[in-house]
């Protein structure tokens, strides 16, 4: 949205902290990016490990994709099928 709306941007850094439900990171985000995946890179494979949900001056954060969240995502996907 801040880059004109016709481009995709990427940024990578290590997580600032991780709890049972949250990943906090110092990666620049803008309003409208909620729902974006947070990836973990292992070799050449990417794994979605979180869903961006919050922007804050102390660090932006994502909800971790734990089993409960993953199962909800599968349920929501099935509803839209």
What does the average pLDDT come to?
85
In order across it, which strands form the biggest sheet? 1-2-5-4-3
Spatial shape: globular
| Separation, N- and C-terminal Cα atoms | 29 Å
Order of helices and strands: EEEEEH
Main beta sheet: 5 strands, antiparallel
Helix content: 10-25%
Rg is: 14 Å
Condensed summary:
This protein has 81 residues and is α+β, with helices and mostly antiparallel strands. It is 16% helix and 33% strand.
Q: How are the secondary structure elements laid out?
A:
Layout: E1 17-18, E2 22-25, E3 37-42, E4 45-54, E5 60-64, H1 67-79
Antiparallel strand pairs: 1-2, 2-5, 3-4, 4-5
Structure explained in plain terms:
By secondary structure, this protein is of the alpha+beta class. It has one helix and five strands, in the order βββββα. It has one helix at residues 67-79, and strands at 17-18, 22-25, 37-42, 45-54, 60-64. A hairpin with a 3-residue loop joins strand 1 and strand 2. It is globular, with a radius of gyration of 14 Å. The termini are far apart.
Keywords:
81 residues; alpha+beta; 5 strands
């Amino acid at each position: 949205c801040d880059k004109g709306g016709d481009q995709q941007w990427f940024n990578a850094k290590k997580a600032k902290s991780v709890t049972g439900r949250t990943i906090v990171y110092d990666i620049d985000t803008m309003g409208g990016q909620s729902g974006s995946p947070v990836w973990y890179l292992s070799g050449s494979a990417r794994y979605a490990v979180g869903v961006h949900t919050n922007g804050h001056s102390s660090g932006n954060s994502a909800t971790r994709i734990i089993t409960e969240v993953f199962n909800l995502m599968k349920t929501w996907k099935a509803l839209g099928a």
